[in-house]
Design goal:
Blueprint: E1 4-7, H1 17-29, H2 39-43, H3 48-59, H4 65-79, H5 90-99, E2 104-108, H6 112-121, E3 128-133, H7 145-153, E4 161-165, H8 179-182, E5 186-189, H9 190-203, E6 229-230
Parallel strand pairs: 1-2, 1-4, 2-3, 3-6, 4-5
């Protein structure tokens, strides 16, 4: 039985990784630096000190990692003025999980502002009970802390959640272990999540007149419009 589902965001929920790959070169150019082959793949899915370590590996121990990161996010603000495209099957799997009253959360290495921009832009925020950003932790994926904190916020014990992660370990740079696996969770990769979404769509009963969203149960004191629990940066 699935007690809850924790979603990765970039590359799984939204088609953002291809965009991020194009942002490194103009971001580095603003600092007089050239893009080095392999940087995008090495830095993908990282944040905080993990990303800083990757940047030092490519540009030396004395490089201004904070300036590079800020330049990258400045480019991202321009690129993501409109919400990024949703991945196929996202709406179906969210609707199905919601109808089954299965709590959902987002655990992403992206900044909270980016997570909220993408979710709010598509009107998906209400599906999630908890939203956690990698910027809140000193170490990002492949460190399992983000998933462990997310599970704790959901009130779950180790192993009680299923984590939907892009290609399983795509965000786990220089690691053969998915952080969700390390956190003791069952991992559904992007491909398997798409299969689940297709199955959910195929087995869902046909709507009567118009699709009706079945809201997940909420605490009596919270009310039906309760906002998700959002971790603030430490």
């Amino acid at each position: 039985m699935i007690d809850s589902v924790i979603f990765d965001m970039d590359g799984l929920m939204f088609d953002t990784e291809r965009v991020w790959a194009t942002l490194w070169e103009p971001a580095l150019a603003t600092l007089g630096l050239s893009y080095k082959e392999g940087l995008d793949v090495a830095a993908r899915g990282t944040a905080g000190n993990t990303m800083r370590a990757v940047l030092r590996r490519f540009y030396g121990e004395n490089c201004d990692t904070d300036a590079i990161i800020e330049a990258l996010h400045a480019q991202a603000e321009k690129a993501f003025q409109a919400p990024p495209p949703k991945k196929p099957g996202l709406d179906e799997i969210l609707t199905w999980l919601d109808a089954q009253h299965i709590p959902m959360a987002v655990a992403s290495s992206s900044r909270m502002a980016s997570i909220r921009h993408h979710l709010d832009g598509w009107g998906l925020t209400h599906y999630f009970k908890v939203i956690v950003s990698g910027e809140q932790f000193s170490a990002s994926k492949p460190d399992p802390e983000i998933f462990l904190n997310c599970a704790q916020a959901l009130g779950l014990t180790r192993g009680a959640a299923v984590a939907a992660a892009h290609h399983g370990c795509r965000g786990c740079v220089c690691s053969t272990t998915c952080p969700a696996d390390t956190a003791g969770m069952t991992t559904i990769t992007g491909r398997r999540a798409a299969v689940v979404a297709s199955a959910a769509e195929a087995t869902a009963p046909a709507p009567a007149a118009a699709p009706v969203r079945v809201p997940a149960p909420v605490p009596a004191a919270a009310g039906p419009d309760a906002a998700p629990r959002i971790f603030t940066a430490r």
